[in-house]
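Memo to structure team: turn this sequence into structure tokens by end of day. - J.P.
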Amino acid sequence: MHNITKIGVYTSGGDAPGMNAAVRAVVRTAMFYKIEVVGIQMGYRGMLEKRFIPMQSQSVSKIINRGGTILQTSRCPEFEDFEYRKTAYDNIKAEGIDALVVIGGDGSFRGAMALESEQDIPIVGVPATIDNDIYGTDFTIGFDTAINTAMEAIDKIRDTAQSHNIVFFVEVMGRDAGFIGLNTGIATGAEVTLVPEIITDIESLCYYLVAERRKNKTSGIIIVSEGGPMGSAAEVASQVQQRIPDYDTRVTTLGHIQRGGSPTCNDRVLASILGYEAVGALLDNHTGVMVGRSQGKITLTPFGEACSKHNKIDHSLYEITKILSV
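Reply from structure team:
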């Protein structure tokens, strides 16, 4: 049983729209329960460098609509070493911090899991990553904003594709998960959607494109999720060009544009709920768990399970993309 009087909150790993809304929820919920809050800047690196800032209600005023993270984030490979984690813990305790809320993805949770298992400090995680691949929650903070950003960009690309009879190969993020690709593929009416979970060979892709041309369909959008077996959008386009030389192709990589921007309503609400629930979980003496939301209910998933398992795409959605692209 821990007596919690001061909570440290930090964002770690890749930024995601809605992180600020989650920070805001943690701060204001803790204040409601008369608990002090310390913001840890730059994630695990900030623990090592003692980048601690006291946070009040006004500290998180007018940030719910802002993308990125006001606490900033960074990679910290040193944290894989026990001695560095011990230093981080010593700095945290010296600051008077009794518990932690980590907002991030599976890499962030692995760091938290190691720290929590070695030291006497309760930690609860909030899933925030545009990839939506964290097990234990239907959606991660940032995913909804990312797919809307990608959708809007692809809609604009289609205007040019149709005007010039061009086939665009558009690469979207997602690491080794096809959630962004699959959802934007349906939302934009893409002719082809390539995701890491579904194996597609270049010959089948080219056969389909030639068949489409016979139907006088000379422009189109092919969405390529990063991390797929056929390589990047540029590599797929190059292979198609080699096999169908008269095809006019272009490549667009949306990249980090998908991580930025003001979070959608869905992401703001989800972040607010999970930030609130993270503080509640700590007060209920839960530790080493991630708060999630599944089928409308709050769930608590151990860090080990959240990191070792991955959300699975709905394969029926992939079938829908194929049928609707005919």
